[in-house]
Structure of ABC transporter ATP-binding protein:
Amino acid sequence: MSTSAPDRPGSAAEASAEPLIATRGLSAGYGTQPVVRDLDIEVRPGEVVALLGPNGAGKTTTLRVLAGDLAPMSGEVRWLGGAGRAPLHRRARQGLAYVGERAVFTRLDVAENLRVGRVETARALELFPELEKRLRTGAGMLSGGEQQMLSLARALCRSPRLLLADELSLGLAPLVVERLLRAVREAADRGLGALLVEQHVRKVLDIADRVYVLRRGRIEMTGTPRELRENLDAVESSYLARPGTAASM
Ligand SMILES: Nc1ncnc2c1ncn2[C@@H]1O[C@H](COP(=O)(O)OP(=O)(O)OP(=O)(O)O)[C@@H](O)[C@H]1O
């Protein structure tokens, strides 16, 4: 399977835009041992790209090195066309949003979380109206889904160019997962580029333009959701399934 034109209508023009982020021959890891090798990954404005793979494949490591949180061992990461090793805080100022698991300040309430994130409350509530009744609730008291809505609101309402999201939907109910993924899709339709690490394979394929499948630190498959679906049974049974979660995919 190879990379080909995205199979979502309207994304052909975006596919010709310059990548927001691109790696060439990237290897990264911890200590002296690379856990991801020879990665060629790119994300362009307006596209949602899914990064899939089994536990320990190196998905989080990949996001961390793209975010500037972990230095490459070899190869390069080009962010906005430049190959410099800008750290995460500088990339964040330049429009990179990184959402890890439950990225909220649990001791602050929802309104304070938005304020600290320099996000207008009204804008966040436009995106997720269900947060309105929780504005004065401590973020640590929110449900998992509400916490992720808050994390995503904080990221998206600052109009980033690129969103890197690590298991946005971990442990959440299917309807909440769909809600979060739809918010990302809508932001991408307005020009955001997004790279999503996601265990809900079928749900993310519904909104993605392209997919990379990582296995043992290498990209083993890349293509459109349509191409991946044709191989989905093989993909799931061979290495995407997590014990106990195959049904959710
Ligand atoms: N800070 C760290 N120090 C040393 N090794 C690490 C560190 N973080 C991750 N690893 C190792 O790197 C490998 C890849 O981990 P990573 O978290 O990138 O995989 P993943 O695909 O995101 O997995 P999962 O789906 O389980 O979250 C694993 O073997 C893991 O043990």
Observations:
- The first strand starts at residue 21 and ends at 30.
